[in-house]
Amino acid sequence: MTGGGMLPSPLVLKKRNVAKMKTRELKNIRIEERSPTVEEYQSLKHYTNWEMVEDSDVRTDLDHGIYSVVAYDGPNLVGMGRVVGDLVSYFYVEDIIVHPKHLRIGVGGLILSHIEHYIESIATRYAYIGLIATKGTKEFYKKYGFIERKSSCQGMFKVLKARIQ
Ligand SMILES: CC(C)(COP(=O)(O)OP(=O)(O)OC[C@H]1O[C@@H](n2cnc3c(N)ncnc32)[C@H](O)[C@@H]1OP(=O)(O)O)[C@@H](O)C(=O)NCCC(=O)NCCS
Fold first, then answer.
1. What pLDDT does residue 153 have?
2. Where are the domains of the chain?
């Protein structure tokens, strides 16, 4: 008898195939380091259940971000992510959204890695990267090294009431 070891189980083979497919799909993803247009922003936000914001306010938001990326698969917009902050010590990650048809192949991770790379290139030592992990996204952020704060200092926030036009 030749060779050693047992053959991989069907489950292991299936997992390997899925991993290969994901890698192949991810290779097609192109990251552009730029702000999304208002149309791009709204089209991805549409897939979340977050409050929609007026185009004019989105324009102002986008103009005041410090870094953004959009992700494309060929001609199709598949994701985006943004950062606001003071360029030195405090950074806040916002609006990471991946198109529902492209989830779980690593697009979100790719967006986050560009964001972190940018922040690392300008931040001071011990800079702080904050974010709010919306429902169901904690595992995603944990995978990329974010931790839940469990010290005596609690993160707090306040949502302002909608502006009356
Ligand atoms: C959160 C989000 C950006 C993740 O994007 P994604 O491209 O699917 O993420 P990735 O493929 O890079 O995921 C990497 C890993 O994160 C974890 N992860 C991602 N989504 C997850 C989920 N819904 N549940 C559990 N773990 C998850 C997994 O460990 C995953 O690895 P795996 O697929 O090999 O198991 C995407 O689900 C999304 O756009 N959600 C809607 C918008 C949103 O809530 N954004 C977050 C704003 S705070």
1. 84
2. 10-143
How far is Cα 65 from Cα 130, in angstroms, rounded to an integer?
15
Q: 10-143: what CATH class?
A: alpha beta
Q: Which residue puts its alpha carbon closest to atom 36 of ligand 1?
A: 98
**What backbone torsions phi and psi does residue 87 show, to the nearest 5 degrees?**
75, 0
And the tokens for 19?
């991993």
pLDDT digits (tens, 9 = 90+) for 102-112: 999 999 999 99
Give the C-alpha separation, 71 to 80, whole Å.
Answer: 6
Query: Whole-angstrom Cα distance, residue 3 to residue 135?
Result: 49
Listed residue (76, 81, 131) closest to 102, CA to CA = 76
Going through 34-75 in order, the beta strands assigned E by DSSP cover 67-73
How far apart are the CA of 137 and the centre of ligand 1, in A? Answer: 6
Q: In testing the pocket of ligand 1, which one of 27, 78, 104 has its CB within 8 Å of the most ligand atoms?
A: 104
User: What is the pTM for the complete model shown?
Assistant: 0.89
